[in-house]
Design brief:
It is built from 12 helices and 10 strands. With 276 residues, the chain is an alpha/beta fold.
Length: 276
C-alpha cells in the first residue's frame, strides 16, 4: 500500500449522533488516523425501520463516503451492522467493520456465570445478531435481550442525568436483573453516554461492555493486518484531520459533538444523501 493510501481517512457512519461515541474511541485509541463521519440525522432513528430501508440508507451513505477517498469503513450503528453489514461490504469494496462482533467477543470473555444481557434498539434485538454471535462463540451462554426504543431520543435531547431517564432505564432493566446477568452489552452507540446511570442502577457486580471501545481496538488490528494503518503522527500544520457530514440540522449535530468529543467541531456540512 502506498503512503498516500495509509494516510487516507476512515469512513464512519451512524443513523445520527450515537456513532460519535465510536468516533471518540477511534480518536483516543488511533490518534494518527483521519476520520470522515456521516450522521444520518434526517432519517434517525434506524431502530424502528425495516431491513430493506436500512440497507438502502446504508448503501447511499457508503456511496457518499467513497467520494471522500476513504480507506476503510466503520458502521458505527448497531442496527445498520445487524441488518446491512453484508450489503455494506458488497458496496464498499474495502475493509468494513461493524460494532456487534467486537462487543460480542468481549462479552463472552467477560461473563462468569454465562448470563449476558443485551440492550439495544428494537431492530437490533429482533435481528438476534448479538445472540447469534455470542452463541456461535459459546453455545452455553444465555443471552437476555431487551429493546429500549425510548433511550435514543432521551440521549439526543441531552437527558443523560435526569430522573425520567433513570425511571425508564429501570423499567427496561428490570427483566435483565431478574435473569441474574453479570455482563451487559450496551448494544446501541448512544448507550455509552448513559453508562454512569446504568452502572448506578445495576451495581458494580455487572460488567458493562462498550462496543464503541471494542470496535476501535478491533479497527486498529484490522488496519494493521490490511497494511492500512497510518503510522505517521499528525502534523499540527496539516489540514484538520476530521470531517463531519450530516443529512440535516448541522447546528444540533455540532452542539452534541462538542459535548462529547475530545476535539472542537467547528463545521458540519449537510449532504443531500438521497441523491447517492
Amino acid at each position: 500500500m502506498t503512503e498516500k493510501i495509509n494516510e487516507a481517512p476512515i469512513g464512519v457512519f451512524d443513523s445520527g449522533l450515537g456513532g460519535l461515541t465510536v468516533a471518540r474511541e477511534i480518536m483516543r485509541n488511533l490518534p494518527t488516523e483521519r476520520i470522515v463521519y456521516f450522521g444520518d440525522t434526517a432519517r434517525v432513528p434506524y431502530g424502528s425501520k425495516s431491513k430493506d430501508t436500512i440497507v438502502r440508507y446504508s448503501r447511499q451513505i457508503v456511496r457518499f463516503l467513497k467520494t471522500q477517498d476513504i480507506k476503510a469503513i466503520v458502521i458505527a450503528c448497531n442496527t445498520a451492522t445487524a441488518l446491512a453489514i453484508d450489503e455494506v461490504k458488497e458496496e464498499a469494496g474495502m475493509p468494513v467493520i461493524g460494532v456487534i462482533d467486537p462487543g460480542a467477543h468481549m462479552a463472552v470473555r467477560a461473563t462468569r456465570n454465562k448470563n449476558v444481557g443485551v440492550i439495544a434498539t428494537r431492530a437490533t434485538i429482533q435481528a438476534r445478531t448479538y445472540t447469534t454471535f455470542i452463541n456461535n462463540l459459546d453455545p452455553e451462554i444465555n443471552v437476555i435481550s431487551q429493546a429500549c426504543p425510548l433511550l435514543v431520543p432521551l440521549v439526543e435531547e441531552g437527558w443523560l442525568h435526569d430522573r425520567i431517564t433513570d425511571e425508564i432505564l429501570m423499567r427496561y432493566l428490570d427483566d435483565v436483573l431478574e435473569h441474574d446477568v453479570d455482563t451487559l452489552i450496551l448494544g446501541c452507540t448512544h448507550y455509552p453516554l448513559l453508562r454512569s446511570a446504568i452502572k448506578k442502577l445495576l451495581g458494580e457486580q455487572v460488567t458493562l461492555i462498550n462496543p464503541a471501545y471494542e470496535t476501535a481496538k478491533e479497527l486498529e488490528k484490522m488496519l494493521a493486518a490490511s497494511g492500512l494503518a497510518n503510522v505517521r503522527p499528525m502534523d499540527k500544520n496539516e489540514p484538520y484531520p476530521y470531517k463531519f457530514f450530516v443529512s440535516d440540522d448541522a447546528k444540533k449535530f455540532k452542539d452534541f459533538a462538542n459535548s462529547i468529543l475530545p476535539i472542537d467541531v467547528t463545521n458540519a456540512r449537510v449532504v443531500p444523501i438521497e441523491e447517492y
